[in-house]
Amino acid sequence: MERAWWKEAVVYQIYPRSFNDSDGDGVGDIPGIIEKVDYLDELGIDVVWLCPVYDSPNADNGYDIRDYRSIMDEMGAMADWERLLEALHARDIKLVMDLVVNHTSDEHEWFQKSRREEDGYADYYHWVEGDPDKPPNNWESYFGGPAWSYDETREAWYLHLFDEKQPDLNWRNPDVREAIYDVVNWWLERGIDGFRMDVINLLSKPEGYPDGEVAGYPTGHEHFVDGPRIHEYLRGLYEETFAHYDVMTVGEMVDLDVETANAYLGADGDGLNMVFHFDHTFIDFGPEGRWDVGEWSVSDFEEIFTEWQTGLDETSWDGLYWENHDQPRVVSRFGDDEQYRYESATMLGTLLFGLRGTPYVYQGQEIGMTNADFESLEETRDVDTRRPVEIMLEEGEIDSYEEIRDVVNYRSRDNARTPMQWSGEDNAGFTDGDPWIKVNNNYTEINVEASRSADRSVWQYYRELVDLRHDEQTLVYGEYDLVETPDPLYAFTRTLEDDQLLVVLNWSDGERSPPSLSIENPTLLIGNYEDAEARLDSALRPYEARIYRL
Question: Per the UniProt record, which residue ranges are transmembrane (predicted)?
């Protein structure tokens, strides 16, 4: 397998609004990130993925971009961004930005000109004339409701697969593609080290906008997920931009399977370095979908991870994650955030770092931050929480927020967006002002200051995992092979030439017998219990994780 720096890296994702506030306005900012650069360096990470800091009216917290070449006032100024880049590079930490080019803000200059049908901009977005009371088709938005809104200025419908303030760009227009190439190259020339590309497989929509007829959510997905010209668009983006730089690219792709991923990845595909898929994040959806909590098993995870670990081509690579700005806290979701918070958080971290691919750690994951309790809908901030719940209330599916509160507390994206818990001081040390979103009530117990000073903490263990992955090339490039074990055990080997590692996990709150393996004198490389046994035949305690050299 060809080696590359981005395969060997550990990435840390920062959601700026919630990371660190430097000026007391309650919103995290770029100067606040600069204040914490030494913290990132001490954690040992190699890359920072920075969620959007571009100029935006914040309909979707920065994923609705008003100007790709400006910094949002709340986040600071371009000079602050330049200082951040310099501070990271001085510590050999690379910077990856978010690329959001499926849609813009409706306040973007392009959309304002397009709605007025100014020369050269009329077809920058998807416009359809027609009855103002009847959308062009039955497509739905990922945020709920129709994917079309009627614009009184142009007297036509425009497409938005997300919020109505996020109109979709028309990639069929070559002028749009050229404009995006210019934006991407502008940032690459400023010295950044790559892009995470938001919902990048939604760029292509078919002409004629046919109705959706295939079951699934949202309606119409069979037409705009991996659309008819998607490979042409992404290959063109690669050839005009990324191919000329030594950068890292990761594409977030909805409804992605392994076979389709291989077509997007590598120089023989569309040039992307790696992808984010969602298979493991849907595992706990109930019969009614996202706003219903379903049952899951360890074998479900085994099946999904094994399919991706063994199904990617030799030239393909995976992006590994549990949490991000769109996912709730993993220790609350797939672990035990009360009695076994340390054990389950570190077990889940061991699995993340044990698989082949580039691991991504989301802010707060390294201290075992948990989901919050949103006592009312007014306490939530996420449009992708508020809008679906409002629709349920409007349509009579529920009578009150209390009926859905437990699911919101389990599922909402706001769980990942509560402020970073730096200390036990007021507002978790995040801000001197009023935070833009509530602070999790457990910040006095769960915070960076306490974690770093403890002899045994989630932070200390993540620090060891980062070091181990840097030291062990087999963890990076080794082949994955599943070891057959009964639930709730999960075990697999990683093999590189003559070196072999074994990852063993007990994904439960009870003691379990170890897998039956005849191996002499294994070496324990890491374990999440202080007195972890080097012997493979010792019982595995609740949420125990071990990595051996065989």
Answer: none
Taking the mean position of all CA atoms in its chain, how far away is CA 353? 16
Name residue 142's amino acid: Y
Label residue 399 left, alpha or beta by phi (over 0 means left) and psi (-120 to 50 means alpha).
alpha
252 is a catalytic site residue: yes
pLDDT tens per residue, range 422-470: 999 999 999 999 999 999 999 999 999 999 999 899 999 999 999 999 9
Catalytic residue among 198, 284, 382, 544: 198
Residue 507 tokens read as 């994904």
The band of 230, judged by pLDDT with boundaries at 50, 70 and 90, is very high
- pLDDT beyond 90 at 476: yes
- Residue type (1 letter), 74: E
CA–chain centroid gap for 290, Å, is 17
Dist. CA 431–CA 62, nearest whole Å: 20
Among 460, 436, 440, 437, which residue's Cα sits nearest to residue 448? 460
Q: Please give the domain boundaries of the chain with CATH numbers for all domains.
A: 5-99+318-464 (3.20.20.80), 105-170 (3.90.400.10), 479-549 (2.60.40.1180)
How far apart are alpha carbons 470 and 359 in whole angstroms?
12
Q: What is the mean pLDDT of residues 23-35?
A: 98
**Cα end-to-end span (Å), the chain:** 22
Q: Distances in Å between the alpha carbon of 112 and those of 117, 121, 128, 156?
A: 9, 9, 16, 14
Please tell me the distance from the alpha carbon of residue 526 to that of residue 335, in angstroms, as a whole number.
20
Tokens 């035949």 belong to which residue? Answer: 537
Q: How many CB atoms lie under 10 A from the CB of residue 314?
A: 8
Active site residue 80: no
Note the maximum CA span of the chain.
76
| DSSP summary character for residue 129 | -
Q: Is the pLDDT of residue 521 over 90?
A: no
Please work out, in degrees rounded to the nearest 5, the angle formed at the alpha carbon of residue 520 by the alpha carbons of 517 and 523. 100
Residue 254 backbone dihedrals phi, psi, to 5 degrees: -85, 150
Active-site option among 60, 252, 336, 384: 252
| Segment 249-281, tens digit of pLDDT | 999 999 999 999 999 999 889 999 999 999 999
Q: How far is CA 356 from CA 267, 271, 462, in A?
A: 20, 19, 17
Q: Do the beta carbons of residue 497 and residue 478 sit within 8 Å?
A: no
Average pLDDT, the chain: 96
Can you tell me the distance from the alpha carbon of 252 to that of 202, in angstroms, rounded to the nearest whole number?
10
Q: How much is the pTM?
A: 0.97
SS3 content of the chain, % helix, strand, coil (to 5): 35, 20, 50
Q: Quick one: angle between helices 341-354 and 458-471, nearest 10?
A: 20
Identify whether the C-beta of residue 34 lies closer than 8 Å to the C-beta of residue 87: yes
